[in-house]
Amino acid sequence: MQAFRPIEPERMHLRQLFGILLQRAKLGLGVAGVVFLIVLGAFALKTPTYSAVGSVVIDPRNAELTSARQSEGTLPPDTSAVDTQVEILRSPALYQDVVRRLKLYNDPEYNPSQGPGMFGLTPAKPPIANPDERTISRVARTLQDRTWARRAGLTYVVQVGSSSTSPQKAARITNAILTTYLDRQLDEKVAMVSRANTELGRSLEEMRREAEAAEARVQEYKNANGLFSSEGQTMAEQEVSVLNQQLAVARAEAAEKAARVAAAQAQLRNGNMGSDVGAALGSETIKEMRKREAELSVKLAQLRTDFTDEYPEVKRTEAQLRDIRGQIQAEINRIMSSLRADATAAAGRVASLAGSRGAAQGGIAANNSAMVGLLPLQQRAEAAKAIYEAYLNRAKEVAAAGSLQQPDARINSQAAVPTAPSSPNMKLGAALAVLAALIAAGAAVLMAEFWDKHLRSRLDVERELGVPFAGVLPDFRSVKPKGLRGPQAQPAEYLVSHPFSGFAEAFRNLRAFLMVSSRGDDSKLIAVTSAVPREGKSLTSFCLARTLALSGSSVVLVDCDLRQRGATKLSGPKEVGLVEVVQDDVPLSEALVHDPKSNMFVLPAAGKSIPYDLFSNPKTDEVLRELSERFDYVILDAPPILGVADARILAAKADRVLYLVQWNKTPLRAAQSAIDILQECGANVAGALLTKVNVKGQARYGYGDSSDYYGYFKNYYIAAA
Questions:
Q1: What 8-state DSSP symbol labels residue 635?
Q2: Comparing C-alpha atoms, which of 517, 619, 610, 615 is closest to residue 568?
Q3: How far is CA 410 from each of CA 63, 257, 336, rounded to the nearest angstrom?
Q4: Residue 558: half-sphere exposure toward Cβ, Cα within 13 Å
Q5: What contacts 24+ positions apart, CB below 8 Å, involve 264-272?
């Protein structure tokens, strides 16, 4: 047999690089987030300043839209008028109104005495409920220092801007200045219209009460006389219409059922005893009885050809035939009775509906007489409503006159919330933060990949461990069919119940590897071990033994892990096992446990305590030699190499060692240390096997192993046996 040569490392392609990034996504994102926040925070240390700008248009031609005598030739404002409005926008009285409107006297930015002092050591003062004029003036001057108003060239547009540490506050203050400026112009014009609205509102309230009272009288009259209506008809008229429709349907059903009864009676009179009645022909019960009658008739005819009429079997058959014919006639009579009952019930429903319709028609006559008294009440209610609506329209016109009053200017553009401060430049800071985050994330991913190396592919196993690659065993959770429940949801049971599944195929591949990699001699003792615990060693040993046994070989699985005893747990506990065979000379046949599902045998660990240095005992060699003579394969479930000395002894005794490495979990250094120990023991390492492989994750990482192409063969495997 040729010596094993590791495959040469290939150049990393884009898919592998993408797989590494997916695997280390959490680390990369975390480092990128931290670096991004640090860099961005450095730019944000300086308190940013935001400026919001709005504008108004000076235009007195729109000041009085409700005036019918407005002159179309009104001249636009001159330069002095526009300059006057600019000065009004700069007046202290305007800013004092803004301070009161926004309560800026409680804002530490404009009133520092409200904020914490002594570098934040003293707490902030409570909000001011009723500020004095001196405080208002001082805050207004601070606001005026941070606000500017200027004319845009020689136009009638005046721009107003304000600066603040908050973009929302800057926009809110600028808009408040514009709004306050327009409100001060509009207040006097609206005051006169407000007084007229007050007087008209009193009369309007009285008119509303009268209209409501008239409408209430109409509703009371309708309720008293039952004049309920829906969709233009009274309730009585709707009831008659519905009853007419139901009566027509009921009459049709009654006629149909009466016709069925008449037809059935005519068929009875024909002398056929109801055998051709339509309802009887469709009865499943009669069909079964007819079939039974035909069978008895045939049987009776055959008996009469062979025996006389006095023969007991002939008499019994004649009695059965008479009985079945009597049952048929009774069933036909029951069907006829049912048809008559249905016809009678249909006729009764027609009579009931006809009576109800007569009662409803009497209600229509009563409603017609009551309508005579309703008309005057409706006329008075409509008149009161018309008067109220006339006053209401007038009130709306007066209210509109007040709302249509316009100031001598209008807002040209509201101040929008600034999206970026003037200083510092956060766009540049964000760009640098993103760049630094990407570089740091890439460096962290590469450092983690090479610092904490795990084995994920055939290339990793052969290059890093220097042993043949035995294959991959999928993580059962990644290949288990959805909805699988019960005992078959256990991997060892699923292997037997679904022999053509992808999970079972992986163990057949492992069996093929062991057969192909055999040195040609009689290598029966196969030790299964790993570097550290919880890598699927016992389950792999158990499933491998079952696979070999299902292929026709005689197999025994020996639980040599005296501490965890995983194989013993899978096969079931027993009082006698390997410990008793070696120490107490118990016959081997009494300790072996037969697995009826695969025809393999298991030699459990047994023993209530862990014996000292059991595998150095010469009797252990005799037991293993006897097992090798009786079975084709002896699978040794050995403990982990790095932690238990028994594993080294068993590896040296075994003909071949199958070394397990958990996919993407076992540290590279631990896996290499275990290989070094095995080589020091002189063990024949047949190959390394990747266990608990997430086939979907492996395919996503793109390492080129057989599990990479699981999706191609997903429909090739048979999931259900």
A1: E
A2: 610
A3: 9, 83, 93
A4: 29
A5: 264/335, 264/336, 264/339, 265/336, 268/336
Tell me the CATH class for 453-713: alpha beta
Cα separation of 603 and 190, whole Å?
104
Q: Is 32 exposed, middle or buried (0-12, 13-18, 19+ CB in 10 A)?
A: buried
The rounded distance, in Å, linking the Cα atoms of 42 and 45 is 5
- Taking the C-alpha atoms of residue 118 and residue 111, their distance in angstroms, rounded to an integer, is 16
Global confidence as pTM = 0.48
| CA distance linking residue 603 with residue 555, whole number of Å | 11
Share of the chain above pLDDT 90, in %: 28
Inter-residue contact 426 to 46 (CB < 8 Å)? no
Q: What angle do CA 209, 211, 215 make, to 5 degrees?
A: 115
Q: CA gyration radius for the chain?
A: 50
Beta carbons within 8 Å of 71's beta carbon, 6+ residues apart: none
3-state secondary structure of 92: helix
Cβ-based burial of 519 (10 A; exposed 0-12, middle 13-18, buried ≥19): exposed
How many residues can be counted in the chain? 721
Q: Each residue of 289-334: pLDDT tens digit?
A: 878 878 888 887 888 888 887 888 888 888 888 888 788 777 777 8
Bridge-based pairing state of the strands 525-530 and 633-637: parallel
Q: ∠ CA(657), CA(660), CA(664), 5° rounding?
A: 160
DSSP result, 507-543 = HHHHHHHHHHT--SS---EEEEEESSSSSSHHHHHHH
Q: How many C-beta neighbours within 10 Å does residue 535 have?
A: 23
Backbone region of residue 330 per phi and psi (left: phi > 0; alpha: psi in -120 to 50; beta: other values): alpha
Token pair of 69, please?
């005598």
| Beta carbons of 542 and 548 less than 8 angstroms apart | no
Q: If you search the block for the tokens 């990699």, which residue do you land on? A: 517
User: Does residue 119 have a pLDDT over 60?
Assistant: no
Can you state the angle between helices 14-23 and 25-43, rounded to 10 degrees?
70
Q: Are 335 and 280 in contact (CB under 8 A)?
A: yes
Q: What's the token pair of residue 78?
A: 């001159």
The pLDDT of residue 663 is above 60: yes
DSSP 411-440: EEEPPPPPSS-SBS-HHHHHHHHHHHHHHH
